[in-house]
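Appendix B. Raw example, untouched.
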Amino acid sequence: MPSSKVTLVDGMQFVGVSGSGHAVVMDADQKNGGANSGARPMEFLLTGFGGCTGMDVISILRKKRQKVTSFEIFVEGEKAEGHPARYTKIHLEYVVTGKNISPEAVERAIKLSLDKYCSVGATLGKSAEISHEFRIIDSEAEAGG
């Protein structure tokens, strides 16, 4: 069963250690009693979503023999007014750079991730509307060739 241990360090700073032994620092901003020494917990939800779908998409694209040289996902969330300020909308922008990347392969990989494989997205999708778009950058055109 996945697990995590979260420990107060000082003020509003916490260190979370995952069951696999990796640590992250979380903190509030100054107006909320923190020192801004780490990311906010809600930011980690977006980061985790990006990582989850990113691992799916890049794995699928590699299986489809797409020559990806760079891959980024920009994740933005819109929160509800008041408390709890849960995410109501999340938008992902996938940017795939490579040579002769198939738009159909990218769209299919994203769809498989969001509809079938990404457990973070499935969890967040229970309370937030999730949308996406993608861009392909041709590395050969970028290099002038």
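End of appendix B.
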